[in-house]
């Protein structure tokens, strides 16, 4: 099939072209983001592939459908930027990559914990300036600390296992408890308020749905231990950024590490180093010495890119051959259109 890819970088082209040797689709790559202003680029392409921050709202989908698109392939797990109701009405199938490398995201979350705790980002810059002082770099032993894991699916489980290896006690919260989590030594499920009140480190690994939007808000922040470390590698919308900033200023949040940001689509995956960032909230976050932000790179490993390309092209091949779509996202009127992690 002819497939139009949006929001592509060199690494996308390399991974998809390598995997496509086994699928033989006709791939065209566009650097631009998919939205209502760019959808016309996909005219004549029965398949369109979008990335996590591309916009597939009703208007965009209508343009795609009018120009012959029949399948929208997401090279991500999340589908919160897709109007599933309108896609169903237009007869456009939507498929996704429900899992790629859970190790990639979980390991980055652990990296943020270590970087924040031991101030590695500050230590690195100091030594490059020939400043060998240890003042202000004091951390704490992870061994014996309590780690709260919000969401114990594939990624949350791997994160929990790694933190267990450090000798941490684990508190879990999940609407659908995982027996594998309960089988870990020093791990137990608790209510969310209990997790918030007793965790030294809290890491978010849950879906973005109507019930989890702004899960971290003024009320839940108030329930946390003073000086808590908060990690988010899932979806930016899980955290009320304004509330997190107030938590940092009050000292309730002692460390914040995020790989996602609720307004990231205007920033991430592009080089803006020669521009003036207009997002004042993001700039304020950047100014705090106890905040580390990475630009949605949790997925960015060789293994994950290969898995994303393989699953995406397999989804398109199944559609082309009339096979059942095992990774189809089906609109359900009673369900939220937000995305699992």
Report on the structure:
This protein is α/β, with parallel strands linked by helices and 341 residues long. Helix content is 34%, strand content 15%. The protein has 12 helices and 12 strands. The strands form 2 sheets. A 7-stranded parallel sheet has the order 8-7-6-9-10-11-12, with helices on both faces. The protein has a 5-stranded parallel sheet with strand order 2-1-3-4-5, with helices on both faces. The longest helix is centred in the C-terminal third of the chain and has 19 residues, at 302-320. The radius of gyration is 21 Å and the shape is globular. Mean pLDDT is 95; it is low at 335-341.
Describe the SSE topology.
Layout: E1 2-5, H1 10-19, E2 26-29, E3 47-50, H2 58-66, E4 71-74, H3 84-90, E5 93-95, H4 102-117, H5 120-128, E6 146-150, H6 154-165, E7 169-173, H7 179-182, E8 187-189, H8 192-198, E9 201-204, H9 218-222, E10 228-232, H10 241-250, E11 253-258, H11 280-287, E12 291-293, H12 302-320
Parallel strand pairs: 1-2, 1-3, 3-4, 4-5, 6-7, 6-9, 7-8, 9-10, 10-11, 11-12
Provide a compact summary of the structure.
With 341 residues, the chain is of the alpha/beta class.
Which descriptor suits the 3D outline?
A: globular
Tally the helices: what do you get? 12
* Average pLDDT score: 95
* Unreliable residue runs: 335-341
Strand content: 5-15%
Secondary structure category = alpha/beta
Largest sheet: 7 strands, parallel
Listing every helix as H and every strand as E from the N terminus to the C terminus, the arrangement reads: EHEEHEHEHHEHEHEHEHEHEHEH
The Rg value, from CA coordinates, equals 21 Å
Strands across the major sheet, in which order? 8-7-6-9-10-11-12
The N- to C-terminal Cα distance equals: 28 Å
Q: What fraction, in percent, of the residue positions are helical?
A: 25-40%
Number of strands: 12
